[in-house]
Specification:
Blueprint (H helix, E strand, L loop, with lengths): L2 E6 L3 H14 L5 E7 L9 E2 L2 E5 L11 E4 L9 H9 L9 E2 L4 E2 L4 E2 L4 E2 L4 E2 L4 E2 L4 E2 L4 E2 L4 E2 L4 E2 L4 E2 L4 E2 L4 E2 L4 E2 L4 E2 L4 E2 L4 E2 L7 E4 L4 E5 L4
Parallel strand pairs: 1-2, 1-5, 2-4, 6-9, 7-10, 8-11, 9-12, 10-13, 11-14, 12-15, 13-16, 14-17, 15-18, 16-19, 17-20, 18-21, 19-22, 21-23
Antiparallel strand pairs: 3-4, 23-24
């Protein structure tokens, strides 16, 4: 059965997810992509890659039979996805899980609802991925990792075995996290960083080895 889906967020990553949905459908039609919702009024009525911006996020209620995927995570505002999820107040069954056909996910791994995994990612054995997680192209997640809800893992990041990434973190492009390291909630590991030791909550770290740059203020 083909299901209607709307992408919440019409920025660049949203358009990447739209293309991932097209690639999934090329192997057997699964999703009918209606378009995007976005609170930027300048985007309303425009089309991106042939899909319209239907209106603001608040209009989600106009689509009672539709599935949604939240594509909002960014390092400037780690809590944005959670705020929008809370605002929508939808049952978990209303969120689409999008996994690109090129992804290698272990049969022993769990992936939560609303999560997106883009091209050429590898997620190995006995890992648990939460809900509304964005795993962007080329990322590698090793065995026995735990990735909590609302996390963003940017392109080509590497999580070695047994890494634990808590709620709402942003792992930057090409960052590497050593096995069994824990990254506290609502923290950011900068682009290209190498984290050899635990990262505290509400922290931003960068460099090789990764060092604390600042404590983040709750958005």
């Amino acid at each position: 059965m083909v299901k209607d889906v709307i992408i919440v967020g019409a920025a660049g990553t949203g358009r990447e997810v739209a293309e991932a949905i097209e690639d999934i459908n090329s192997l057997g039609r699964k999703w009918n992509l209606l378009g995007f919702l976005d609170d930027d009024s300048q985007k309303h009525g425009r089309e991106y890659n042939g899909y319209p911006v239907l209106g603001s996020i608040s209009t989600a209620a106009d689509y009672p039979a539709c599935h949604f995927v939240l594509v909002l995570g960014n390092y400037h505002d780690l809590r944005l996805t959670k705020r929008v999820f809370d605002r929508l107040s939808l049952d978990v069954s209303r969120f689409a899980t999008i996994i690109h056909p090129t992804v290698r996910v272990s049969r022993y791994t769990e992936v939560g609802p609303g999560t997106v995994v883009l091209q050429n990612c590898v997620i190995t054995s006995n890992t648990r991925i939460g809900s509304h997680v964005l795993v962007l192209f080329g990322a590698h997640i090793g065995h026995d990792c735990i990735v909590d809800d609302y996390v963003v893992i940017a392109p080509n990041a590497v999580l070695a075995g047994g890494v634990c990434v808590r709620e709402g973190c942003y792992i930057g492009a090409n960052a590497t996290i050593l096995q069994k390291v824990k990254v506290g909630p609502w923290s950011c590991v900068g682009m290209g960083a190498a984290a050899f030791s635990d990262v505290g909550p509400n922290s931003t770290v960068a460099g090789n080895p990764a060092r604390l740059l600042k404590h983040r203020v709750h958005e």
